[in-house]
């Protein structure tokens, strides 16, 4: 029988319980305590800390604390990625952020989702859908990226936008729900 963690990572319905999941949550919580304890650290120290928890951390990737995540082990950062203060990444499945992407303060990237069937929700089931953010994307402060969204390279996400569907490369989207306002050639 497959573990709840195996089901979670496969994007299937699972219960957020069991020893593997509890150990991963505890590990991420202890890491966040250390990471968020100081904003005054060198780029090298930041990279070393991120590399302890994340699946992949490109050269020069940086996150300003406070930062919060579920597991961290499902996050991949390309080279030169920057996340400003107060970002939240719910990474029950993979979150990949491409090279050179800049993310404003208070942005939420969410992979955790819940069944639409109320009986399944009452049973404590949930699932995840990966979020993929391309290279050189700019995400304005307070934006929310919902589960399953892919954002193409060179896109711009306006401040406080709620991104409910894929964003093509080069597009600019704003609002709730986010809608395209311009495309760059």
TrEMBL record:
<dbReference type="Pfam" id="PF00132">
    <property type="entry name" value="Hexapep"/>
</dbReference>
<feature type="domain" description="Maltose/galactoside acetyltransferase">
    <location>
        <begin position="5"/>
        <end position="59"/>
    </location>
</feature>
<comment type="similarity">
    <text>Belongs to the transferase hexapeptide repeat family.</text>
</comment>
<keyword id="KW-0012">Acyltransferase</keyword>
<dbReference type="InterPro" id="IPR018357">
    <property type="entry name" value="Hexapep_transf_CS"/>
</dbReference>
<dbReference type="InterPro" id="IPR051159">
    <property type="entry name" value="Hexapeptide_acetyltransf"/>
</dbReference>
<comment type="function">
    <text>Acetyltransferase implicated in the O-acetylation of Nod factors.</text>
</comment>
<keyword id="KW-0808">Transferase</keyword>
<keyword id="KW-0536">Nodulation</keyword>
<dbReference type="Pfam" id="PF12464">
    <property type="entry name" value="Mac"/>
</dbReference>
<keyword id="KW-0677">Repeat</keyword>
<protein>
    <recommendedName>
        <fullName>Nodulation protein L</fullName>
    </recommendedName>
</protein>
<dbReference type="InterPro" id="IPR001451">
    <property type="entry name" value="Hexapep"/>
</dbReference>
<dbReference type="InterPro" id="IPR011004">
    <property type="entry name" value="Trimer_LpxA-like_sf"/>
</dbReference>
<dbReference type="GO" id="GO:0008374">
    <property type="term" value="F:O-acyltransferase activity"/>
</dbReference>
<dbReference type="GO" id="GO:0005829">
    <property type="term" value="C:cytosol"/>
</dbReference>
<dbReference type="InterPro" id="IPR024688">
    <property type="entry name" value="Mac_dom"/>
</dbReference>
<dbReference type="GO" id="GO:0016407">
    <property type="term" value="F:acetyltransferase activity"/>
</dbReference>
